[in-house]
């Protein structure tokens, strides 16, 4: 009997404030979509770091004949200079940080260049002498780039030292800033959702003030009086959370996996599994929104 009465009161409240309820659903949907997007972006960054950082290489570009760098004043790197660089890499304080060293000749670099840019008209004017021979170093720990760079940078025969991780970090910086933007928008929208849920509950409570007064007179408990209003907000917020999960699933499955995945196959993308990982968090946030709004509102507007 009590359950039937509570369900009846919930139905009445939702019908009386239908437009406000729809607004709560939509605002909750948008705000939790931003929350979910921020979470998925962080999971995406984690997947990319796990895969890319393991492949990070340090590239020591050796002097070609045409370089104007001060360390290349003697022209193309000599065998003696190359031997000195290799000896520095074999030093006891450096060797433990190095997993593998691969030497790429100018001819190999030129062949790779031609394969990559053979369709470009300007590639035909580049010669073997313009290319850098290089030492490609795979590190045991990608964070120890400085150990290698410090001992070879500035040595005769070394034009530049480049760390691939720096390129990756720039990508991750952009993604992290996108996460902060999504989180900022989510915070604003969550505040709007709280205010809207509070307003909806207040209007519902005011429209049924007479009924709640009668219930108080016949001895109904505070929880029994307030429960229908709390459930109204919780239902609207939960529907918004379900829509947010559906929207995120559609975005990941169709936009990320099918569209981006078909064109950029070298990136490890988040999948629907990550969406289901984030989904419980969104539902919990939705329930907390409704709970906070209910506590703030009902203590005042259901007093008789």
From TrEMBL:
Membrane topology, from the record: Multi-pass membrane protein
Any one annotated GO CC term: plasma membrane
Coiled coil: none
GO terms classed as biological process: cell division
Tagged with keyword Transmembrane: yes
Residue spans crossing the bilayer: 21-45, 180-205, 217-250, 275-298
Keywords noted in UniProt: Cell cycle, Cell division, Cell membrane, Membrane, Transmembrane, Transmembrane helix
Main location: membrane
Subcellular location: Cell membrane
Keyword Kinase recorded: no
Pfam families: FtsX (PF02687), FtsX_ECD (PF18075)
Domain annotation FtsX extracellular: ranges: 56-161
Family stated for the protein in its record: Belongs to the ABC-4 integral membrane protein family. FtsX subfamily.
Quaternary assembly: Forms a membrane-associated complex with FtsE.
Biological role stated in the UniProt entry: Part of the ABC transporter FtsEX involved in cellular division.
Protein name: Cell division protein FtsX
Organism: Cellulomonas marina
């Amino acid at each position: 009997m009590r359950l039937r009465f509570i369900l009846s009161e919930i139905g009445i409240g939702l019908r009386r404030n239908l437009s406000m309820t729809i607004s709560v659903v939509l605002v909750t949907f948008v705000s939790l979509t931003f929350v979910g997007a921020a979470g998925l972006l962080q999971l995406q960054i984690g997947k990319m770091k796990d895969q890319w950082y393991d492949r990070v290489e340090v590239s020591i570009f050796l002097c070609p004949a045409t370089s104007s760098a001060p360390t290349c004043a003697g022209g193309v790197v000599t065998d003696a200079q190359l031997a000195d660089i290799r000896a520095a890499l074999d030093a006891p304080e450096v060797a433990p940080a190095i997993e593998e060293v691969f030497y790429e000749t100018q001819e190999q670099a030129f062949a790779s260049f031609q394969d990559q840019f053979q369709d470009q008209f300007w590639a035909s004017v580049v010669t073997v002498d313009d290319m850098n021979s290089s030492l490609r170093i795979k590190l045991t720990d990608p964070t120890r780039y400085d150990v290698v760079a410090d001992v070879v940078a500035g040595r005769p025969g070394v034009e530049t030292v480049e760390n691939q991780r720096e390129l990756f970090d720039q990508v991750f910086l952009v993604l992290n800033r996108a996460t902060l933007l999504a989180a900022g928008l989510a915070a604003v929208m969550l505040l709007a959702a709280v205010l809207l849920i509070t307003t909806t509950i207040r209007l519902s409570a005011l429209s049924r003030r007479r009924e709640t007064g009668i219930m108080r007179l016949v001895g109904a408990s505070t929880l029994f009086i307030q429960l229908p209003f709390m459930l109204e907000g919780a239902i609207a917020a939960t529907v918004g959370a379900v829509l947010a999960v559906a929207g995120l699933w559609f975005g990941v499955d169709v936009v990320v996996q099918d569209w981006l995945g078909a064109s950029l196959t070298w990136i490890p993308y988040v999948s629907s599994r990550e969406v289901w990982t984030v989904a419980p968090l969104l539902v919990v946030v939705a329930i907390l929104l409704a709970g906070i709004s209910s506590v703030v509102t009902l203590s005042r507007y259901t007093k008789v």
